[in-house]
Amino acid sequence: MEVSRTIMGQRQRRYRETYRERVAGWYNGWLHVLIIYLAGSIALYIYGANTVDVQWWEWLVLPLGFISYQISEYILHMYVMHRPRKNVVLRALYIRHTLMHHQFFTKEEMRFADHKDWRVTFFPPFTMLGLTLLSIIPSLAAGIVISENTGWLLMAALTASYMFYELIHFCCHIDDNWLVRNIPLINTARRHHTAHHDHSLMMGVNMGIGTAVPDWVMGTSDLDRGLWGHLFNGYDERHVRTNLQKPFKTTDSKHAVPTRQAVEARS
Asked: Torsion angle of alpha carbons 64, 98, 131, 184, nearest 10°?
């Protein structure tokens, strides 16, 4: 099954066919999403149930946790998911993202064909467990140094931020419709992320997914706008910079994304 009325090239079409052949027949995208959000919801309930008489200033850890997650996401995306590393785990992230996700989706065709294609976008369900383990140390420190409530709230903020990330990224790859076209933040993310899937830009432009703010701060956005414009740009193309430096230059679309064999040969 493939999307109709598409302008994708033959290279992308062949890769999508090959990728789908490797997906296990039992895989179900709906179940994948259910596991992620059920686990996240249970975790949020547990964190919330452990807070007692939260003070007004303790609630500030929620936006601080969200901002911390966005910064971490940006750094991971910029310096790991688009840069091959010798470390086995980091290299696996690079292969899954640059060599798989960016071949399956390009600026010419960003859409899923059906729920089985969700596997190439959503992280494996065990990612929630990994995030929880990584969140324990800073949350435990906050709980000891500041207050017990801030520790639980930081855990909640990081978990909710991951769930928010998965939702936004998913919305970037569904069919265009009236709803996503008009919901603030989501419409901005869709245009922002589609530009990132331009193979000549993907190595260093529009690296933020949950929000474009880190790109605005770091100067890696394709927009020439301020903070408000980066939050609520929507589909507007009038402010796209004309002097963009393309970190990954190619004159041949066949080699827009390096093959896995080529990467292994260079390592």
From this structure: 40
